[in-house]
Amino acid sequence: MNVLQYFRSSLWVAGFAALAVASAPAQAQVPAGGAHPLRLVVGFPPGGALDTLARALAEQLRTGGEEQVIVDNRPGAATRISIEYAKRAAPDGRTVLLSSNAPLVIFPMTYRQLAYDVDRDFIPVAHLAEVPTVISTGADRPYKTLQDYVGWVRANPSQASVGLTNLGGTLHFAVLGMAKTVGVPLTPVAYKGGAPLVTDLVGGHVPLSADALASQLELHRGGKVRILAVSGTRRNASLPDVPTAREAGIDAFDHANASYSAFVPAGTPAAVVQRLERAFVAAMQQPQVRSAMTRAGLEATGLPGAAVKRMLGEERDFWRPLVQASGFRSEE
């Protein structure tokens, strides 16, 4: 079985999520859309962490009475294609953007020009999940721990590339911070999603990666990928034997966990936003969904839109001085 086949087989996680939520009580009700499906827009290809969440959420919303819910994958341009698509959608509550925080917090600090402004163009609906991230490598690499990798990359500085799913995000700046600690200019390399990244990781084409745990957890369990460390300040319940990056001597990943939230285009009527908020919060708080998210390497939250607005503001305050100090600007 090659790695692509293996990666696809790991999509049982999404299937598990769908089966787990199928028996949930109908608490997540959204306004009927007639002939227009509820479209959940995702800026990554199928198979990654956000796609897994979107499909579990879609199934729960169907269980709650929404007849048509589709997951619309629109990868590319570091998820900006999906964001711009959702921005242009009719503000009728039938198109919902599911996004990580980086394109909405970090990109405005690093891109010379963006076609969207999150405060002007979107209304936050709900906070859906926290996204633990990991530092990982191929299982056949000679380094078994993050400390081993530091010694290896110091001896092999020409092989200092680190795979990411986009540039200009929190993991990008965490890698730059790690480079200062290691004393080697690590080179972030962007991929279009978790599947192509892990294919190169397993194939030995990139020596290290930093990505969402959900994209790599099953491959780690299957022995294809070795997770060296987790981000944040505490160990992850799914990987109790894997140290945090801080435990391994790298504190740059303390704030590198991401989060997923839902947004609708500006101009969506307040009553529609409120109904969507209730539906999405209820869906993510279902025990079956929370259990499925845990198995997928995510931490379900289910918080109202006001919490999203507050968190975005706090993250801007934290990352702004670090981004400015780095001098990084996107060339796209």
Radius of gyration: 19 Å
Q: What is the molecular shape?
A: globular
Decide which structural class fits the backbone.
alpha/beta
- Number of helical regions: 14
Helix content: 40-55%
Q: What's the overall average pLDDT, rounded?
A: 87
Strand portion:
15-25%
Order of helices and strands: HHEHEHEHHHEEHEHEHEHEEHHEH
**Main β-sheet description:** 6 strands, mixed
Task: Report the uncertain regions.
Answer: 2-33
| Secondary structure: number of strands | 11
Question: Which strand order does the major sheet show?
Answer: 2-1-3-10-4-11
How far the N terminus sits from the C terminus, by CA atoms, comes to 37 Å
Topology, please?
Blueprint: H1 3-9, H2 12-22, E1 38-42, H3 49-63, E2 69-73, H4 80-88, E3 95-100, H5 102-105, H6 107-110, H7 118-121, E4 122-131, E5 133-138, H8 146-155, E6 161-164, H9 170-182, E7 187-190, H10 194-202, E8 209-212, H11 217-221, E9 225-230, E10 258-265, H12 270-284, H13 287-295, E11 299-304, H14 305-326
Parallel strand pairs: 1-2, 1-3, 6-7
Antiparallel strand pairs: 3-10, 4-10, 4-11, 5-8, 5-9
